[in-house]
Amino acid sequence: MLSISEGDIHGSLQKVVANTSENPEEPSTEYLFQQSRSVSLFYKFTKGHKYLVIPRRMKSSAGNNVPNKKYVIALRTKTKVSSKDVVVRIVRLDKDNAVFKNLTLFHAGTLTSLTTVYQIKDGNNVFRTYRGDNLCKGRKEHNAKFELVI
C-alpha cells in the first residue's frame, strides 16, 4: 500500500489524504491493504505543502516480515523535478511512527535522509541514473546495469 500525507511546509503535523485502492484514479482515505506485487495511485501535489509518500506493507504469518524489503517508487510529474518549485527528498520515518499504526493524523518526527540510487528520464526518454538523497542534487552513476532506454 502507498499512503500520501500532507502537512504544513514548516511543520511536523501530517494528515493522510490518500491511500492506494483497487482503482489508481480513485485513491481512498481508508487503509486498504491489497495482496499485490504492485500498487499505484494518482494524486495532485500542490505548492506550499509538505507531502510524504509512504510505502506500506502488512506483516503476515506467511513470512512477509523481512525488515529491509526492497521496493521501487516512481513519480510521474508534469513539472520538472529539477525545477525550483519542487523538492523531492528521500527520507525514512521512524519505524514506530504513528502512521504505521494506521492513524490519520501524525507527527512526521525526525526524518532520516537516505542515499539511494534513482533514475530520471531526460527529454529524449533516456533514463539517467544518480545516487543521492535529493532528486535534484544526486551524483551521476556510470553503471550500465542501471541505464535503461525506452
Please tell me about this protein's structure.
By secondary structure, the chain is mainly β. The protein has two domains: 1-59 and 71-114, no CATH class; 115-150, no CATH class. The protein is 0% helix and 28% strand. It has no helices and nine strands. It has strands spanning 2-8, 13-19, 49-55, 91-92, 105-107, 112-113, 116-121, 127-132, 139-140. The strands form three sheets. The protein has a four-stranded antiparallel sheet with strand order 3-1-2-5, with no helix packed on it. Strands 7-8-9 form a three-stranded antiparallel sheet, with no helix packed on it. Strands 4-6 form a two-stranded antiparallel sheet. A hairpin with a 6-residue loop joins strand 8 (127-132) and strand 9 (139-140). The two termini are 27 Å apart. The relative contact order is 0.17. The mean pLDDT is 84.
Topology summary:
Blueprint: E1 2-8, E2 13-19, E3 49-55, E4 91-92, E5 105-107, E6 112-113, E7 116-121, E8 127-132, E9 139-140
Antiparallel strand pairs: 1-2, 1-3, 2-5, 4-6, 7-8, 8-9
Based on the model shown, name its key terms.
single chain, 150 residues, mainly beta, 2 domains, 4-stranded antiparallel β-sheet, 3-stranded antiparallel β-sheet, 9 strands
The number of domains = 2
- Order of strands in the sheet with the most strands? 3-1-2-5
**Unreliable residue runs:** none
Assembly category:
single chain
Principal-axis shape: globular
Number of E-state strands: 9
Helix run count? 0
Radius of gyration (Å): 16 Å
Order of helices and strands: EEEEEEEEE
User: End-to-end distance, in Å?
Assistant: 27 Å
* Helix residue percentage: under 10%
Share of residues in strands = 25-35%
Instruction: Please outline the major beta sheet.
Output: 4 strands, antiparallel
Estimate the mean pLDDT confidence.
84
What class, by secondary structure content? Answer: mainly beta
